Amino acid sequence: MTSTTDANTDTPGATGTPEASGTYGELRAQLATLTTEAFRPELAEIDRLSTEEIARIMNGEDATVPAAVAERLPQIAAAIDATAERMARGGRLIYAGAGTAGRLGVLDASECPPTFNTDPAEVVGLIAGGPSAMVTAVEGAEDSKELAAADLDALKLTADDTVVGISASGRTPYAIGAVEHARARGALTIGLSCNADSALAAAAEHGLEVVTGPELLTGSTRLKAGTAQKLVLNMISTVTMIRLGKTYGNLMVDVRASNEKLRARSRHIVSLATGASDAAIEAALAATDGEVKNAILVVLGQVDGPTAARLLTESDGHLRAALAAVRTT
After folding, report:
1. N or C end of the chain, less CB within 10 A?
2. C-alpha angle with apex 7: 5 to 8, nearest 5 degrees?
3. Closest by CA position to 238, among listed 76, 62, 103, 55
4. DSSP state, 209?
5. Which of 155, 178, 156, 181 is nearest to 167 (CA)?
């Protein structure tokens, strides 16, 4: 989503006063320095190509994104370790962004409860303008640092929380405001952008600048920049959850079986982890109220349901540690 100021630049009469002209002129000059906003003259006639040719160009552009992410893996890993440390103390992971960036944060947050059985309050997505902005642009919301601060205050931000500001340009006031406010409150801050030397990265303790270059469509940062943001957010949430013991190997042992597909997946996970018979799997799940991690411990540790629950509580939810405790008793 472009900002209100971006959108109004081309509106008749929007620059009708010297004050407005100066404001938009300054912003246009700022945008001209961003690689995500750069014009690519070699694609100026892309609309004259065949559909397959356009698709091939677009696919080639997308293929460059993982390499851009790979260049920032050390910084991403450091941010994840710091996030996991805070969450292990009871902190939350909070994403904050506007437009596409905000939607990607909300998407990643919303997928954590069914995937890792987290409480909805543990991973939170804030989008400028509130929930309605997921489907309809809320004009001006992304231009307010104060709105970001208010949204974080409504969550009763603590020093154990992690706030990830997301902005392709790295200049979105809402994302920068969220990071600045969170850092002032002692929370861990991460700034994810797709331009070098961004204000967002500078404001955060961990600046992650995944430079994806000019877009196929000038300034359409839902494309390569959006893909890069999705990849990094996947890493942040997934690897953090691995560090917190939400997986056993590469199995989602904290999956919430909320529908038929997930109930079948739960049984498959217990089978893969234990090699037990179907009858033994059903018995273990019945003894643990359907909790996959507990059921695996029942089978592999040869303990009852309440004992499995106690051992997992004592090991902070880490199945390997709980199994080690069984074997040493």
Report:
1. C
2. 65
3. 76
4. E
5. 178
Residues belonging to the active site = 111, 142
Residue 124 sits at φ, ψ, to 5 deg, of -125, 140
Measured over the CA atoms of residue 199, residue 200, residue 206 and residue 210, the dihedral's sign is negative
DSSP-derived letter for residue 248 is B
| H or E stretch covering 287 | helix 278-287
Strand partners, 209: 193
User: Which residues lie below 8 Å from residue 149, measured CB to CB, with a gap of 6+?
Assistant: 177, 178, 181
User: How far apart are the C-alpha atoms of 215 and 207, rounded to whole Å?
Assistant: 22
Residues 6+ apart with CB under 8 A from 273: 248, 249, 251, 253, 296, 299, 300
Asked whether residue 108 carries a pLDDT value surpassing 80, the answer given is: yes
Provide CB contacts within 8 A for 3, sequence distance 6+. Answer: 98, 142, 143, 172
Task: State the DSSP code for 243.
Answer: H
pTM of the entire predicted model: 0.88
Label residue 91 by pLDDT band (50, 70, 90): very high
How far is residue 307 from each of residues 219, 277, 299, 323, measured CA to CA in Å?
Answer: 56, 21, 12, 12
Handedness of CA 159, 161, 162, 164 (dihedral sign): negative
Residue in this structure with the two tokens 């938009």, named with its chain if needed: 24
**Strand partners for 206:** 190
Phi-psi region of 318 (alpha: psi -120 to 50; beta: other; left: phi over 0): beta
With a CB cutoff of 8 Å and minimum separation 6, the contacts of 71 are: 210, 211
